[in-house]
Write a structure and sequence with these properties.
alpha+beta; five-stranded antiparallel beta sheet; 14 helices; 13 strands; 42% helix; disordered C terminus
Length: 456
C-alpha cells in the first residue's frame, strides 16, 4: 500500500525532454539517464526498434553512456555519421545532453562539461559541425539538424574560454543563418504559387519552423547577443523572421505537434530576452527595421526615424510613410506584428479569424481571405502589397474608379463594386475592403444594393 501512494518530489521528469512518437520513443531511458554502460547497450540489442539498424541504435543510446563522456561521444558520432541528425528525436537527445548541468566538481567546474572549456576540443567540434551543416543545407526538411548545430554551438560558446573558439562560434552561427534564411526565401516563393489549402498549411508550418531555426542563431548568452546582432542585416533577418512566424503560425493548437509548440515557446523566450536590446538599437539606428518591413511591404518608404511608445506599450515602435497623406506604421518588437493605420497587412486580425462564428462560416477557406486597407484618396496608394494572392495599387472614392492587378489580371474597383473573377464585401464608409478568391463560394452579389450577402 505504501508503494501505491509513493510519489517523487523532484523536478527531474519536468526537466527531461520527451521523445516524439516514432521508433525512438522506446529509447526514452537513454535520454533520461546517464547510468547505462556500453555493456548494457550490447546486452540490450533486442530492444533495437525494427525501423533502426544496429549502428543507429548503439549510436543513439550511447551518447549519454557515461556522464563525463557525453561531449566526447557527441564529437565521435559527428565524425562517424551513424546518427540521423535531421531526426527530431536526435535533436532532443543532444539538447538534453548539453543542457543538463549535472553535478559540480570540487574545483567549481561543471563535471559533465569540462571539454567545451578546452580550446582544442572547441576547434574540433566546430570543424565537425561545419561538415554537418554542409550535409544539412541541401533541403529545409533538415531543419532539426540545423537546430542540433545551433544548440551545440550555443552551449560551446557559453563554455568557451578562448577568443578563437568564441569567434568560431559566431562565424558558425552566421553560416547557419545564411542557410536558413535562404530556405525562408525559397518557402516564400512556394507560398506565393500554392493554391491547395492543405499544401498552404504545410508550407506555412514549415516556414514557421525554418524561421524559428534561423532566429535560433541569436540564442546565446545575454552578454554575447549584440555580437550576433551588430549589423543592419542581422536586425533585418531577426525581425523579418518574427513577422513571418506571427502571420503563419497555425490558428489552431490542434494543427501543431509538441515539437513545433516547443520550438515556438523557445523562440518566444528568445524574443523576450532580446527585446530590450533590440528596442534601444532600432530607435538609434532604424535601417535594419526598415529593411525588415520592406520585405513584407515592398513599397514601404519611411519618412521619420522609428519611435518607441511609452510603457506599458514599449514593445511597439512606429513611424510614418512618405506617401501623401502619411500612413502610420506600427511594429511590435515582441510578436513581429506589422500594422498599417492600426490594421494588419495581408490578413485579418487573429482574434477575428479564430472566432467560432468566423470559423463556422468560412472553415479552412478563411486562410484565403485577405484584408486590405483602402483609404478614401483621390490618388492611388503606392503599391500596397500582400504577400499571398493580391497585389494592390488602388485608391477609393465613390465617384472614381481605380485599377488593381492580381496575378497579371486587372480588376476594377468602383465605389463599392469589384468584379472580374473575384467576389467582395466592401464597407466604403469606413475604408476597409475584404477580397475573396473566386473559389470561395459563400457569397452571392445583390444587383439592386451595393453590398453582398453571405449564403451557404
Amino acid at each position: 500500500m505504501t508503494n501505491q501512494y509513493h510519489w517523487d518530489n523532484t523536478i527531474r521528469d519536468h526537466c527531461t525532454f520527451r521523445l516524439p512518437p516514432g521508433p525512438y520513443r522506446a529509447l526514452q531511458y537513454s535520454v533520461s539517464s546517464t547510468s547505462h554502460t556500453s555493456n548494457d547497450i550490447i546486452a540490450n540489442q533486442s530492444e533495437c526498434p525494427g525501423e533502426l539498424n544496429f549502428h543507429e541504435f548503439t549510436a543513439f543510446v550511447g551518447i549519454r553512456s557515461g556522464a563525463r563522456l557525453q561531449w566526447l561521444n557527441i564529437l565521435s558520432e559527428l565524425r562517424s555519421g551513424s546518427l540521423k541528425f535531421q531526426e527530431e528525436a536526435v535533436y532532443y537527445l543532444l539538447k538534453q545532453t548539453v543542457c543538463q548541468i549535472g553535478p559540480w566538481a570540487t574545483d567549481g567546474q561543471r563535471e559533465w562539461h569540462i571539454e567545451p572549456t578546452e580550446m582544442e576540443f572547441g576547434k574540433l567540434l566546430l570543424a565537425e559541425l561545419a561538415v554537418l551543416l554542409d550535409r544539412m543545407k541541401a533541403h529545409w526538411h533538415n531543419v532539426d539538424g540545423i537546430l542540433v548545430i545551433t544548440t551545440l554551438v550555443s552551449r560551446l560558446l557559453a563554455s568557451a574560454k578562448d577568443d578563437v573558439v568564441a569567434q568560431g562560434c559566431f562565424e558558425a552561427m552566421r553560416q547557419v543563418r545564411d542557410v536558413t534564411y535562404g530556405w525562408v526565401k525559397s518557402i516564400l516563393i512556394k507560398l506565393k504559387n500554392v493554391e491547395d489549402d492543405a499544401r498552404l498549411q504545410e508550407y506555412q508550418k514549415q516556414l514557421c519552423k525554418v524561421a524559428a531555426a534561423c532566429r535560433s542563431t541569436y540564442d546565446v548568452d545575454q552578454d554575447k547577443i549584440l555580437d550576433l546582432l551588430s549589423s543592419d542585416d542581422d536586425v533585418s533577418v531577426f525581425l523579418h523572421c518574427a513577422t513571418l512566424i506571427h502571420y503563419n503560425t497555425p490558428l489552431s493548437s490542434s494543427e501543431a505537434d509538441d515539437g513545433f509548440r516547443d520550438l515556438l515557446r523557445r523562440d518566444w523566450q528568445l524574443t523576450h530576452r532580446i527585446e530590450p536590446l533590440l528596442g534601444a538599437k532600432v530607435v538609434k539606428q532604424s535601417e535594419g527595421l526598415d529593411m525588415a518591413v520592406g520585405h513584407v511591404w515592398e513599397f514601404f518608404k519611411p519618412s521619420f526615424k522609428w519611435k518607441r511608445l511609452s510603457s506599458p506599450n514599449s514593445r511597439w515602435v512606429h513611424t510614418h510613410t512618405k506617401s501623401s497623406p502619411k500612413q502610420d506604421v506600427q511594429y511590435n518588437l515582441l510578436s513581429g506584428q506589422l500594422l498599417i493605420e492600426g490594421r494588419p497587412i495581408g490578413q485579418l486580425p487573429r482574434d477575428i479569424v479564430t472566432h467560432p462564428t468566423y470559423s463556422r462560416i468560412f472553415g479552412q477557406a478563411s486562410r484565403c481571405i485577405i484584408s486590405v486597407v483602402i483609404h478614401a484618396l483621390t490618388a492611388p496608394l503606392e503599391g500596397f502589397t500582400s504577400d499571398t494572392l493580391w497585389y494592390w495599387g488602388v485608391g477609393l472614392q465613390s465617384s472614381q474608379s481605380y485599377r488593381c492587378r492580381s496575378r497579371h489580371r486587372f480588376l476594377w474597383l468602383s465605389g463599392s463594386h469589384i468584379f472580374h473573377h473575384s467576389l467582395t464585401y466592401l464597407r466604403a464608409h469606413i475604408g476597409v475592403g475584404l477580397l475573396y478568391p473566386e473559389t470561395l463560394q459563400v457569397w452571392r452579389s445583390s444587383e439592386t444594393v451595393g453590398y453582398t450577402d453571405a449564403k451557404r
